[in-house]
Write a structure and sequence with these properties.
single chain, alpha/beta, Diaminopimelate Epimerase, Chain A, domain 1, six-stranded mixed β-sheet, 11 helices, 11 strands, DDH_dom, DHH_sf, Phosphoesterase RecJ domain-containing protein, nucleic acid binding, Oligoribo/pAp-PDE_c-di-AMP_PDE
Length: 311
C-alpha cells in the first residue's frame, strides 16, 4: 500500500490535494501535511490544495483558488474523505480531467471511488496513516509537516481517548514530536477559545439532557448560536465530546442548527452509532459518526433510535 503511494509521488509532477467539506483538523492536517511533505521531499513538483477554509481553522495555512484547467494531467490526492459527494470541490466533474485520483483515508471503504485507494480503517486518524507512510518509507519529516499531522492525530483521537488508539498511535505521535515542533502552540491553536464561546460551553454543560439509559444530548438552535456570537455552527458541532466526560454516559450526541439543515454528531463508548447515522444522511466510524436532518421533528426520531440502541 505505502510502496504504491510512494511510487505515485515519485513518478508524477503535478498534484492537487483535496479533503472533505466542513473540514476538521484531520482533514486539514492530512491535506496540508501532505503538501508540505511533497514540498520538502520533492521541491520541483507542483502542489495545489483546495477547499473552503473555516475562519477559526485558518491557522493551519492557506488554500489555493483552483480552476478547472488545474486538473488537466494532475494527480488528485483526496484525504480523509469517505464518500465522493463530500469532497470539497466546486465542481466534481473537474476530477474527470485528472490523470489519477487517489483516495487516502481511514474510514470504512464503503464508497470505493478513485483509481487508487490507500485506505485502512484501523487507523483512528488519516494523519496517523500518513505519518506511518512517512516513517515506513523514510521520507524527510520536517517540524512543519509534523505540526500539521499532529493537529489531526490529537483531535481525531480526542487526545488519545478512543478505543481505536493503539501502540502504533503513540509511536506515530512520538515520531512527530521528535521533530521538535512547538507542541504547546499546537494545543493552543486547537483548544484556546474566546470568552463568548467558553460561555457557550458552560451553557452546554448546564443544559444537556441525560436519560436513564445513558444517552446525553444537547440541541443548539440558530438563536442560541447568535446569543453566544458563535459564527460557525460546524465548529460547535465538533464540541460533542464535552458530553463524553460525564460519568454513566454511553452515547452522546450534539444537534446543531446550520443554514440549511441540522448537523448531528454521534459518539459512543462501545455502541455502533454509525448504524444510526446511516439512516439519516450520514455515516462514519462505529463509535464516531455524523449525520444531518432537516427539522427538529426528525431530531426526536434520532434520539429515539439512540435510546433503542441502548436498551
Amino acid at each position: 500500500m505505502f510502496e504504491q503511494l510512494l511510487k505515485i509521488l515519485k513518478d508524477h509532477d503535478n498534484f492537487i490535494i483535496l479533503r472533505h467539506i466542513e473540514p476538521d483538523c484531520d482533514a486539514l492536517g492530512s491535506q496540508l501535511g501532505l503538501k508540505t511533505l511533497l514540498n520538502d521531499n520533492f521541491p520541483t513538483k507542483k502542489v495545489l490544495v483546495g477547499g473552503k477554509l473555516p475562519t477559526e481553522l485558518s491557522f493551519v495555512g492557506e488554500m489555493d483558488q483552483l480552476q478547472e484547467e488545474d486538473f488537466n494531467d494532475a494527480v488528485v490526492l483526496i484525504t480523509d474523505t469517505a464518500t465522493i459527494e463530500r469532497i470539497d470541490l466546486e465542481n466534481e466533474k473537474w476530477l474527470t480531467a485528472a490523470k489519477l485520483v487517489v483516495k487516502i483515508d481511514h474510514h470504512l471503504n464503503l464508497d470505493q471511488y478513485g483509481d487508487v485507494m490507500i485506505v485502512d480503517a484501523s487507523y483512528p486518524a488519516t494523519c496517523e496513516l500518513i505519518t506511518d507512510f512517512i516513517t515506513t518509507t523514510n521520507l524527510k519529516l520536517s517540524p512543519a509537516t509534523a505540526h500539521l499531522l499532529f493537529l489531526g492525530l490529537v483531535t481525531d483521537t480526542e487526545r488519545f481517548l478512543y478505543r481505536s488508539v493503539s501502540e502504533r498511535t503513540f509511536a506515530m505521535a512520538y515520531h512527530l514530536t521528535k521533530t521538535k515542533f512547538n507542541l504547546s502552540a499546537a494545543y493552543d491553536e486547537i483548544y484556546a477559545i474566546n470568552p463568548n464561546l467558553a460561555r457557550l460551553k458552560g451553557y452546554i454543560l448546564t443544559n444537556f439532557t441525560l436519560t436513564p439509559e445513558g444517552l446525553a444530548y444537547i440541541k443548539i438552535t440558530k438563536e442560541l448560536l447568535a446569543q453566544f456570537e458563535a459564527q460557525n455552527p460546524h465548529q460547535i458541532a465538533l464540541w460533542v465530546n464535552i458530553l463524553g466526560d460525564i460519568k454513566g454516559v454511553k452515547i452522546w450526541m450534539m444537534f446543531v442548527e446550520c443554514k440549511d439543515y441540522i448537523r448531528i454528531e454521534f459518539r459512543s463508548r462501545y455502541f455502533a452509532v454509525n448504524k444510526i447515522a446511516s439512516k439519516f444522511n450520514g455515516g462514519g466510524h462505529q463509535v464516531a459518526a455524523g449525520a444531518k436532518v432537516y427539522d427538529w421533528t426528525n431530531v426526536d426520531i434520532v434520539i429515539q433510535e439512540a435510546t433503542t440502541l441502548l436498551k
